[in-house]
Amino acid sequence: MSDNDDIEVESDEEQPRFQSAADKRAHHNALERKRRDHIKDSFHSLRDSVPSLQGEKASRAQILDKATEYIQYMRRKNHTHQQDIDDLKRQNALLEQQVKYWKLRSSAGRDWLCKLWHICRRGCCAVIYNDAMEGYLKMFQKHYKRKVIN
């Protein structure tokens, strides 16, 4: 029986009526023993799942306390790892945008400025501009805005 399975408990009413009181009591005791054994096995499994308790003797209260501490620790750790993943995704997106910028920059003539301007106008560009790049864009906007809009 796995720890996640429910215990199948037979009720006394399902048994034939001709059983003696002693038979009923023995049957009830066996069911109760089975239930207690399942709880005991579940606590042992929980104890062995907590790194600080593996192989140690511990009371049920200690097992529950340590399991609670371990779950809270793992939640904090998962949250920290998720933040790291989110930071790495943002860094990756920024690096991809910088790669696009440098690919456009390496193109000939003003063509790269035109492509960059259209990318930025669509709102999908978050390139970290240096002073020279900002100057190029201002010059480009000044020169081409009249021709594109008017």
Automatic annotation (TrEMBL):
The keyword Nucleus applies. It comes from the Eukaryota. Keywords: Activator, Coiled coil, DNA-binding, Nucleus, Phosphoprotein, Repressor, Transcription, Transcription regulation. Residues 23-74 form the BHLH domain. Residues 29-40 have a biased composition (Basic and acidic residues). GO terms for biological process: positive regulation of transcription by RNA polymerase II. Residues 1-40 are annotated as: Disordered. Signal peptide: none annotated. InterPro entries: bHLH_dom, HLH_DNA-bd_sf. Residues 71-105 form a coiled coil. GO terms for cellular component: RNA polymerase II transcription regulator complex. Residues 1-13 have a biased composition (Acidic residues). GO terms for molecular function: DNA binding; DNA-binding transcription factor activity; protein dimerization activity. Gene3D superfamilies: Helix-loop-helix DNA-binding domain. Efficient DNA binding requires dimerization with another bHLH protein. Binds DNA as a heterodimer with MYC or MAD. Part of the E2F6.com-1 complex in G0 phase composed of E2F6, MGA, MAX, TFDP1, CBX3, BAT8, EUHMTASE1, RING1, RNF2, MBLR, L3MBTL2 and YAF2. Component of some MLL1/MLL complex, at least composed of the core components KMT2A/MLL1, ASH2L, HCFC1/HCF1, WDR5 and RBBP5, as well as the facultative components BACC1, CHD8, E2F6, HSP70, INO80C, KANSL1, LAS1L, MAX, MCRS1, MGA, MYST1/MOF, PELP1, PHF20, PRP31, RING2, RUVB1/TIP49A, RUVB2/TIP49B, SENP3, TAF1, TAF4, TAF6, TAF7, TAF9 and TEX10. Belongs to the MAX family. This is Protein max.
